[in-house]
Amino acid sequence: MSQSLTQTRYTISEVEARTGLTQHTLRWYERIGLMPHVDRSHSGQRRFTDKDLGWLAFVGKLRATGMSVADMVRYAELVREGEHTVDERRALLEHTRREVRARLAELTDALGVLDRKIEMYAMNTNTGKAQS
Amino acid sequence: MSQSLTQTRYTISEVEARTGLTQHTLRWYERIGLMPHVDRSHSGQRRFTDKDLGWLAFVGKLRATGMSVADMVRYAELVREGEHTVDERRALLEHTRREVRARLAELTDALGVLDRKIEMYAMNTNTGKAQS
DNA sequence: TACTTGCTTGGAGTGCACTCCAGGGTTTTA
DNA sequence: TAAAACCCTGGAGTGCACTCCAAGCAAGTA
Questions:
Q1: Which of A26, A104, B83, B120 lies most in the core, judged by the most C-beta atoms within 10 Å?
Q2: Is the entire prediction scored with pTM above 0.85?
Q3: Which InterPro entries match (chains A, B) (predicted)?
């Protein structure tokens, strides 16, 4: 079960470069409980691990689904609480999935409207017919 | 070119019921220039037409694309300015379309991550194996 | 050692898209 | 006609997700 003793540790600016999240946002994520507690150097500076980077990548995907920060924090809390929360975690993710599917349908529909409108403008350019 | 003389006119609460937009939002849309000027009764109350409803439906589609209110206002201004703005209108819509396509790709990717995570939780429920 | 750059904190500020309020006039119903 | 319901305006307030600030400590370089 033992890990490599030379585990890579990243400063906050390295994590900023790798994730695209600002230092402000990274500190804020930790403050609101969206990060598992991050290691510190002897002087108190954050030292992120590859595991932290993995978590941030997953959080990025959750953000991309449109999940609210409050729900992401709830999910992070459940992870910290341990194995007995897997049912609630799955329920949260399934709820998010339903919302993503609805959003995809809505977005696809709106894309169709956009396509038709753009097509009308293209015709308009050729014929000079009026429209809004 | 003449229209029916008995054109249906809707009060703000009727439009609220039909569109799902609140009265506050409808007034705000008008204030910021997102509506063509709405008719008024002799006493100054708004009287929306079917054309207004059509515009609101289109605006709803633009909202669904994720277009900002500022860009929707810009689009509404261009419509008011007349036919010579069709190129800029089309450019605005094409820009929005590119963003919608990017968002669809991002959302589809995030959905895949969600699917895999949920599947892992389903397995976990059966096997008792640990994970985050 | 001096200087520059980087990191720390709690708290304040920002931009967006609404959302609501106060105070008053209008329209409909009993 | 009186009460209830509806609508008006300018401006203030809200919730979200950051984003920035001040003041100070720490680390790396000439």
A1: A26
A2: yes
A3: DNA-bd_dom_put_sf (IPR009061), MerR-type_HTH_dom (IPR000551), MerR_fam (IPR047057)
